[in-house]
Recover the amino acids of this structure.
C-alpha cells in the first residue's frame, strides 16, 4: 500500500520545509494521542507523549505549526472520553488545544447519527454499549439514548428479563441504532438488549472502532472491537465502524472541517490504523513518528494479515524534529 520508498526527514531541514509547505495552510491531522499535518492533525500516545511524560518540545512544535498557518486536529479511537475530557487531559500535559480541535470516535459516531443518518424523531434513539464519553457526545448532538452508564443495565439478568425481551415488552420502540463502544461494565443483560434491537427491532449497527486491544499499565487489555465482534458473531451483521481506519470517520471529519484531502497529512504511530486511515482517505501525505508503536522494520517486512504492506509517505524519529521547519523558515 503506497509504492514509493518512505522518505526520512529527521535532520534534513530542507526536506522538512518541503514536506510541511506542500500541505494546506489551514490544517494538520494528529493521532490522539496522535498527530497529522495539513488540514487535519492527530496526536496520540507515542507521538506527543508516553505515559504521563510529554516529549520535550511537543508544545513548541505544535505552536510553531500553528504560527505557520497549519490547523491541528486531534483524532482518537477512544470513545470512553469526551472532547471536553480530552481537552482537560491535554491541558494537564501542557499541550495547547481547543475542544473544537479534538475529534474522537464517540463524537464521530454522534455526528454521523445526527447529521448523516438523520433518522426522524422519535426513531433516532440509540442503545449504547459504552461509557460516559459517548453519552456526552450524543448529548452534544441532541441524540437521545438508553443503556451506557444507566445503573439499571449494570446488573445480573433475571428470569423476568428473559421473558420481557422474548415478548418484546422490554424493548424501546424508538431505538433505531445500536452503538457499540468500549464498555467497562459489559454484561449479559446489555448484550441481550443489543442483540434483540438488532435482530428483532431492525436497528442499524454502528461501532466506535475495531481495536482488538488497548494499552494500559504496560500491557494490553480488551478493546472496543471485542464488544462489537460479539454482536457481529451473534447477529451475522457487519457494523459500520466510526473510528480509524474507517472512512466513515474521515467523511465525518471532512464534513465538519471542510478541507482539501490532497492538502492534508495524517501523522501517527500505527501503520494499520493511523497510516492506513490517511492512505485510504486519499490524503496528500502520511507521516509516521517512531517514538510510538511503529518502527521502520514494520513496513520493510512482509505485511499484515492480508499480506499488504502499509507504509507511510514520510517518517521522523520524533515529532519535534519538525521544528527545523521553524528554524529554517
Amino acid at each position: 500500500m503506497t509504492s514509493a520508498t518512505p522518505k526520512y526527514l529527521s535532520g534534513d531541514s530542507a526536506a522538512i520545509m518541503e514536506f510541511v509547505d506542500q500541505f494546506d495552510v489551514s490544517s494538520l491531522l494528529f493521532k490522539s494521542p496522535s498527530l497529522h499535518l495539513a488540514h487535519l492533525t492527530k496526536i496520540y500516545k507515542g507521538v506527543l507523549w508516553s505515559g504521563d511524560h510529554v516529549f520535550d518540545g511537543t508544545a513548541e512544535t505544535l505552536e510553531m505549526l500553528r504560527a505557520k498557518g497549519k490547523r491541528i486536529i486531534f483524532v482518537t479511537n477512544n470513545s470512553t472520553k469526551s472532547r471536553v475530557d480530552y481537552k482537560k487531559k491535554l491541558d494537564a500535559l501542557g499541550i495547547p488545544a481547543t475542544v473544537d480541535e479534538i475529534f474522537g470516535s464517540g463524537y464521530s459516531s454522534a455526528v454521523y447519527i445526527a447529521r448523516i443518518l438523520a433518522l426522524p424523531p422519535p426513531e433516532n434513539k440509540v442503545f449504547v454499549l459504552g461509557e460516559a464519553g459517548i453519552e456526552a457526545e450524543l448529548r452534544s448532538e441532541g441524540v437521545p439514548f438508553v443503556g451506557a452508564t444507566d445503573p439499571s443495565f449494570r446488573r445480573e439478568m433475571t428470569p423476568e428479563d428473559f421473558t420481557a425481551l422474548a415478548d418484546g415488552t422490554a424493548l424501546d420502540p424508538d431505538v433505531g441504532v445500536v452503538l457499540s463502544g468500549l464498555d467497562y461494565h459489559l454484561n449479559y443483560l446489555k448484550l441481550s438488549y443489543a442483540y434483540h434491537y438488532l435482530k428483532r427491532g431492525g436497528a442499524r449497527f454502528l461501532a466506535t472502532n475495531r481495536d482488538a486491544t488497548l494499552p494500559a499499565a504496560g500491557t494490553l487489555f480488551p478493546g472496543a472491537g471485542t464488544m462489537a465482534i460479539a454482536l457481529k458473531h451473534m447477529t451475522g451483521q457487519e457494523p459500520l465502524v466510526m473510528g480509524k481506519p474507517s472512512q466513515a470517520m474521515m467523511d465525518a471529519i471532512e464534513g465538519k472541517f471542510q478541507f482539501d484531502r490532497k492538502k492534508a497529512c495524517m501523522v501517527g504511530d500505527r501503520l494499520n490504523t493511523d497510516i492506513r486511515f490517511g492512505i485510504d482517505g486519499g490524503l496528500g501525505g502520511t507521516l509516521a513518528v517512531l517514538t510510538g508503536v511503529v518502527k521502520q522494520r514494520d513496513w520493510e517486512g512482509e505485511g499484515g494479515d492480508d499480506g499488504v504492506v502499509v507504509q507511510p509517505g514520510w517518517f521522523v524519529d520524533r515529532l519535534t524534529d519538525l521544528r527545523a521547519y521553524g528554524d529554517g523558515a
Q: What stands out?
A: The two ends are 33 Å apart (CA to CA). Confidence is low (pLDDT under 50) at residues 33-44. The longest strand covers residues 175-180. The first helix runs from residue 13 to 21.
